[in-house]
Every structure is written in structure tokens, then in C-alpha cells.
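Recap for those who missed Tuesday's class. We walked through two folding examples back to back. For each one, the amino acid string is listed first and its predicted C-alpha cells come directly after. Nothing is annotated here on purpose, so try labeling regions yourself before you check the end of the notes.
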Amino acid sequence: MHAVVVKVTINDPEAADSALREQVVPGVSQAPGFVAGYWTRKDNGGLSMLIFESEEAASGMSDRVSGMVPDTVSLEGVEVREVVAHA
């Protein structure tokens, strides 16, 4: 398994929450190879970890992230990492 780790700055929390629930989560969850997704927030920072069955599927999602990020947040970084353990 591989994870896509996405870091954002949240500019408008209410609008960002709405876009996350209505657009981002449904779009990501339908991606090929999707296993699970976790979106977290602390103050005005957001960090998500999107788990995929393969490196290829994760890389495909990482290429699409910038087009999926709503205007209510600023994209700070995206990286693909190998999942080495989970419980």
C-alpha cells in the first residue's frame, strides 16, 4: 500500500469543510485503488493521508490533487509514501 500525504493551509474553515464533504471526499473515494482517507485539521493547517492499494494508484492521485483542492485552501505540499505498517 501507498499513501498520498497532502498538506494545506485553510483560508476559510466553514467553506473548506463544506467543499471537503461535498466534493473532495466523494471524488477521492471513487479513485481507482482507493482504500481509506483521513483528513485532519489543527488551527488553520490541514493534513490528509489517502491510502491506496498500489504506488501507481497513489501516484495517479497525487498528480490530480492540485486540481481537486478547493479555493478555500492553499496547497502546501503533496507526497507519496510507502505504508510500512498499519493496525
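Example two. Treat it independently of the first, because the proteins are unrelated.
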Amino acid sequence: MEDDVSRIGRMPVIIPDGVQVEIQDQDVHVKGPKGELKRSFRPEMILKIEEGVLTVDRPSDAPKMRALHGLTRSLINNMVVGVSDGFQKVLQVEGVGYRPELEDADLILHVGFSHSVRVQPEERIEFEVDTKARLITIKGIDKEQVGRIAADIRKIRPPEPYKGKGIRYQGEYVRRKAGKAGKVMT
């Protein structure tokens, strides 16, 4: 059993054409066609670039180092994928009268409140709305930021278990409850 090396940590990060990666001390700067990202990593991790491939090594097999090994590699890979391809999350709006719209760059949600909810995009984030299918697409280069914004929008009106109304991730299964009519009297 090969338990001494992290399976994710040992995988190399292949740097595609058009993406530049610079390492200064423990700061990694990734620049690509969609933008640029910068992040600092723990000084214990050993980062090397050779022939368009970035590798991450760790100094010891201590549990903390093993955890940091895989995490560091995953974060760097997400940065490379983000600046080359980008990330997106799709939300679905369910419910009678519930609808999303786009006004300039702002997302406006009509989800059963007495007022509409306006969500302004953060820097490097873009919203797209399909009004017929009631889909909201959140696009960006930072995977963490895209996921957090999608979760924040879902929190505005999470799907409820009785009628299934609300905002959910596309493909998310919402477990339904029977309600009062489903109760059997004996």
C-alpha cells in the first residue's frame, strides 16, 4: 500500500499554452487569457516548475504536511484551470412567479418576497440569465469565489421540501415531504 505520498499531491500540474506561472518565495502568480490570480502558500511546501509542469513536494510525512501537500496542489491546479478555462455554477429557480432577470450586470431575483432582491457581481464575476428556463449561471476565474457566490444566492431562498419552490443548484435533488394531506388517519 502506497500511503506515504498523497495521490493528489503527487500529480503534476500541467501548464497549458498561454498560461504563465511564476513562483516568488511562496507566492504563486498565474496569468492566462481570462485573467490573473495570486496566492501565497505555506513555506514548508516545495514548488518547482520544469518544462511546463509544476510539481509540489513536501518535506516530511507528518499528517499536517500530507494534508497540505494535496491542498497546495489542488489550489494551484484550480488557479491554472481558472485563468485558462474559467469556472461556472448553474442555479435553477423553481416556483410559480419566481424568476431571475439581469439588469446591467446586476442579478435581480423575484422569489416570493414583497420586494425583489438585487445581487451585484463581485470583481471578476459575471452573471448570465436564461429567463425561459429560469437558470442563473455564475462565471469567474476563482473557483472558491464562484462557489461562495452561488451558495450566497441559493441562501436567499433555499428550496423548501413541500412544494420544492426556491433556488437550487442545477441537478440538485430536493427531498420532498408529503405535508398534511399525506397524513393517514386511523
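Answers for example two:
DSSP finds three helices and 13 strands in the chain.
The chain has a mean pLDDT of 90.
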